[in-house]
Amino acid sequence: MTHIIRVVYCTQCAWMLRAAWVAQELLTTFQDELMGGGATLQPGTGGIFEVYADDELVWSRATDGGFPDIVALKRRVRDRIAPGRALGHADRAAARPAAPDR
Questions:
Q1: What percent of the chain is helix, strand and coil (3-state, nearest 5)?
Q2: Which of 2, 66, 78, 79 would give a disulfide with 37, using CB separation of 3.0 to 4.6 Å?
Q3: Angle of helix 70-81 versus helix 16-29 axis, rounded to 10
Q4: Residue 75 contacts by C-beta under 8 Å, 6 or more apart in sequence?
Q5: Residues 16, 7: Cα–Cα separation, whole Å
Q6: How far apart, in whole angstroms, are the C-alpha atoms of residue 5 and residue 97?
């Protein structure tokens, strides 16, 4: 199955480079899953920064509270387009217990 990533970014906020970097990271990680589909950048306004996988919203700056940590975003995208696929270091980081407070 072919999958598509869409990154919607605010042109007023000059977030195109951030959007391009996110798209690049997702294309690199999910190159097999995105073959024939790809990733697109969609200009927007009003502070928008959203990431969609197959038209399903996986990250929204407004509702998720800021910009995505790339590892967390990759997990969300993976859960949508390639469930069960190992992400290597990203999965190990999620399994590592938090350091105790001092």
A1: 40, 25, 35
A2: 2
A3: 50
A4: 87, 90, 91, 94
A5: 9
A6: 31
